[in-house]
Amino acid sequence: GDGPQRLMRTRLDTLVASALQRRSAVPAFTCYDFTTALAVVAAAEEAGRGTILLVAPKTAATPNGLRLIAALRGLADDAGVPVAVQLDHASDRQVIDGAVAAGADSVLVDGSALPYEENIALVQDVRAALAAQGRADVVIEAELGGLAGDEDRAFGADAAGSAAPEDASGLTDSGQVEDFVARTGAQLLAVAVGNVHGKYRGEPRLRWDVLQDIAVRTRIPLVLHGASGIPAPELAKAAAMNVGKVNFNTELRTGVLATLEDQLAVHRADGENLQGLLGRWEAAANGFAAASLAVLARSGAAEAGNGETTRALAYNQGFYNLFLAAGALVGAACVALGGAGTPQGVVGWTLIFSCCGSMLLAAAVLARTGRKHLRAAATQGTTPLLAVVLGLIAVLA
Questions:
Q1: Which residues are registered as beta bridge partners of 243?
Q2: What phi and psi, each to the nearest 5 degrees, are found at residue 260?
Q3: How far is CA 20 from CA 35, 242, 271, 303, 308, in A?
Q4: What is the DSSP letter of 150?
Q5: DSSP letter (8 states) at residue 162
């Protein structure tokens, strides 16, 4: 037929790892209803990219919520792109068991509000219980660090939103990451780096330094919650720091509710046209999902473009150093043939010092671009440094 081709079920961790290989991330959208889920999957199919349907624990705790999970499972399995279904922010064993039985293929086991050891114990207990039920294939995401706000509400009674902590309190402690991942066996790690649930109070200020420090301490994909409100250029940088999954909720809800508020009177006047109103609802959700998919896909495109630029610069830099080295060798030959104090020797020393000095300055500039380039800078700068030192000794002797 003309519909999307049905795919084999894809594990959430495989979906995320595949995106990271392309230097992009997978968006995850909270779905309180089937209309929103239809819109999200349609956007993913149009983009040709995978996505994740999230279910809130308050939804999963109800009989109708379990029916929604079963419906989402069917939608995901019938989609033309990889789609995962995840129970979000869960700590209640009964809710987790019910959601998995209904069709959730992954769970965020959230013990972030607990003391460190209790957080680890919760994740371990859930993993062991699922394995005992023959569900060891369920992908486990864990959370380390506390996010301000409420994932189901954009703001509190004062409508002010949530603010990230001014200091390091509540942020993920990068020093705990390796131990936490090793002991929990989590396949994804949600982190707190200045992101919040719900509406941000003021401008979002993500701690990229903390995120980078976390990224170098674990190989598993990282997850960024509270992405609503974070500017697109900021989100596009996330995949470069091993963030393979980005959660959206508030902006999706806000867009749908604003559309319903704007269109309700018109569609009531149009013969109580619920079908038309649902169409507007779906269009609003689809538009936001499509935009989010595009932003996270651009992170991969930008990284690829940066890679091409880096390769071109490296090619140029290689020949630059080659020509400088050749100049220094010509200078050495002039000194050897002409002898010290002769015009030929002066020209030789001038070539040696200018070429080796330029190579040293280039190495110093490379060292200042970041710690990851220190080894390359040392390799590039050692030989010309020795040449300059030995040359100065020879000239001054």
A1: 222
A2: -65, -40
A3: 29, 7, 49, 11, 18
A4: B
A5: B
Instruction: Please tell me which residue in 2, 33, 88, 262 is annotated as part of the active site.
Output: 88
CA atoms of 1 and 375, how far apart (whole Å): 57
Q: Determine the Cα–Cα distance for residues 375 and 383; give it in Å rounded to an integer.
A: 14
How many residues are given for the chain? 397
Query: Positive or negative CA dihedral for 261, 266, 37, 206?
Result: negative
pLDDT in tens, 83-140: 999 999 999 999 999 999 999 999 999 999 999 999 999 999 999 999 999 999 999 9
Q: Can 88 be counted among the known catalytic residues? A: yes
* Spatial distance between the Cα atoms of 110 and 208, rounded to a whole number of angstroms: 23
Closest CA to 40 of 49, 32, 51, 48: 51
Alpha helices in the chain (DSSP H): 12-21, 34-47, 57-60, 63-78, 93-102, 116-132, 174-184, 208-215, 232-235, 250-269, 274-338, 343-368, 374-396
Task: Name the 3-class secondary structure at 87.
Answer: strand
Name which of 386, 379, 347, 387 is nearest 362 in CA terms. 379
Residue 101 corresponds to which amino acid?
A: A
What is the value of pTM for the model shown? 0.73
d(CA 10, CA 148): 32
